[in-house]
Each structure stands twice: as C-alpha cells, then as structure tokens.
Amino acid sequence: MRLSLNMLPALRRWSCGGLVVLLAACSSGGGSDASAEADALNEHKINEAAITDKQEADAKFLVRAASNALLEVELGKLAQARAAAPAVRAFGTEVVRSRLDLLAALRTLAAAKQLAVPSALGDDEQSAYHEASTQTGNELDKRVMALLVKTQKQDEDAFDDMKDDAYDGDIRGLAAKYYPPIDEQLDAAKEAAEAAEKLP
C-alpha cells in the first residue's frame, strides 16, 4: 500500500523545510567542513527515508486494523445469529460492539490524516467469512471462533507494537488506548474458542 497522494505536499513541505534548516546549520559558523556537511546530508537522507517508511507503516497499520475489525464485526454477527454455543453467541455480541467502536475511531483518525481505510471486506476477508458462513451447527462455532482468535491475535500484536513504534503521535495514542481492551478480548476469544472446541 502507498501513502495517500494527499499527503505528498505535506511530506514535500516537511522535507524541504528540514533540508533548509539542515543546510543553514551546516553553513553557519564561518568555515565549512565538506566531510561534515556530506555526513550531515547523508544522515538527513537516511532519516528522511526512515520517516517515510514509518509513515507508510502507520498507514498500513490503519488499513490492517480496519480490515480485521470489519471481518470481526461480520463474524460476530454470524455468531450472534447462528452459533450453537451460548458462549460463542455472547462473544459475538461483545465483539460486534467493541469493533464497531474501534472502526469509528480508526475511520475518524484516518480521515484526519488524509489516509484511506477500507469500508468493506477485502478479498481475503470475504473468503474467510464465506468459509465460516458455509459451516453449520458446531462446526460453524468452531470455525468462527478460530478465525476470531486468529484476527484478534493479529490485532493484539499490531496494537502492542504501534502503541510504542508508530511515527504519528495520534496513531500511537489510538493504539495505546485500544490495546488493553483488545488484549482482554483476545483472552475472552480464546475461552469461547475452547468452549466451541468442546462441542461434539
């Protein structure tokens, strides 16, 4: 995934402004040291590339988190409607509530950062949902819960990483806010999955 085209002017402004400041710092103080200036320019280029990579990682995080949340909402609805085990139905209700809240936060933040997040299931998510929805009875419970544990583990890992590593402070803040409930819900998902596995 690439950064939004809307972000390019801002990135360009940041890059040019940073370069002007850097060159001014290198040329101040009378004499010039060509090696020091070259080192400074190289360091600037490396730092700029790293920042771009981090911004792209931030954007990918928002997309992946929204994709997983969309799938989890649909799986939760499926569990509510068709699960055999009460624990799976109850978990479905909770996951729909929590992920709709998360989706709203992701969409708001993405809009503020001029980034796009998916509004519908992607191909991989549609395929996973279809595979679960074609099951019946206890097999549906098992498949739904296996998928929910898998996606929520991905969420837990991603939010844990991004609460510390996101380049953007707002994205770090969102990850830090939602990490604890995501972590707790993963434990609940594992319990519901164990209940589903015990079904005949």
Automatic annotation (TrEMBL):
Domain DUF4142: 57-191
Name this protein carries in UniProt: DUF4142 domain-containing protein
Species per Swiss-Prot/TrEMBL record: Hymenobacter properus
